[in-house]
Amino acid sequence: MTNRMKIDFVSDVSCPWCIIGLRALEQALDKVKAEIDVEMHFQPFELNPQMGPDGQELFEHLAGKYGTTREQSEQNKEMIRARGADVGFTFRMDRWTRIYNTFDTHRLLHWAGLEGLQSELKHALFDLHFTEGENPGDHGVLIRAAASVGLDSERAAEVLTTNAFADDVRQAQEFYRNQGIQAVPSVIINDQHLIQGGQPVEVFERALRQIAAE
């Protein structure tokens, strides 16, 4: 008998641990696909809602927000690069140099969800930001990403140049903040079970099996 499971993946495309966690979760889901049928939804979370359109240099941002030293920053980047490689994702640290505003990114992802291509766009945006070094808030980048996964580029441009889905994104973010979500990635299973952080594949697999057994 196959268990049906709903997963809400709360994340931001400017968060490196989110793509690490997503890749690990997907690999875990592949291991249990004969037992668990999953309905996945990507939910918005802005790490830096006050960030301006030009973004901020990465180390400057980390030092100001977390007090990170240059040495700590380099150590963290190497850890992220290695963990990414473990799950088959390439971080180009020479290209990932800035932090950007992602509100428009979340609006476009909301629309992509209505079109049935949210997962594809999410992955494309992670690739563009962390591998190619692109600005995930730039409309040209977003339109190109949308087209690359089969979404209509003209409709994507229309979404981005209007206020489309802004209220939906804000309401979703407020909902998850009210649920106590303060960090990403946050993986919420069946509206009851919370797994946080870019966990290894085996952690997700074990949790999925335990929840299914219940």
Provide the CATH top-level class.
Answer: Alpha Beta
- The helix content is 40-55%
* Residues in β-strands, percent: 5-15%
Distance between the termini: 13 Å
Q: List SSEs in N-to-C order.
A: EHEEHHEHHHHHEEH
What features would you describe in this structure?
This protein has 214 residues and is of the alpha+beta class. It has a single domain, classed as Glutaredoxin, CATH 3.40.30.10. Helices cover 53% and strands 14% of the residues. It is built from nine helices and six strands. The protein has helices at residues 16-31, 58-66, 70-86, 103-114, 118-131, 139-148, 153-161, 166-178, 201-213; strands at residues 3-11, 36-44, 56-57, 98-99, 186-189, 193-196. A four-stranded mixed sheet has the order 2-1-5-6. β1 (3-11), α1 (16-31) and β2 form a beta-alpha-beta unit. α5 (118-131) packs across α6 and α6 runs antiparallel to α7. The radius of gyration is 17 Å and the shape is globular. It starts with a strand and ends with a helix. The relative contact order is 0.20.
SSE layout and pairing:
Elements (H helix, E strand, L loop, with lengths): L2 E9 L4 H16 L4 E9 L11 E2 H9 L3 H17 L11 E2 L3 H12 L3 H14 L7 H10 L4 H9 L4 H13 L7 E4 L3 E4 L4 H13 L1
Parallel strand pairs: 1-2
Antiparallel strand pairs: 1-5, 3-4, 5-6
Helix pairs in contact: 1-9, 4-5, 5-6, 6-7
Key terms:
214 residues, alpha+beta, Glutaredoxin, two-stranded antiparallel sheet, 6 strands
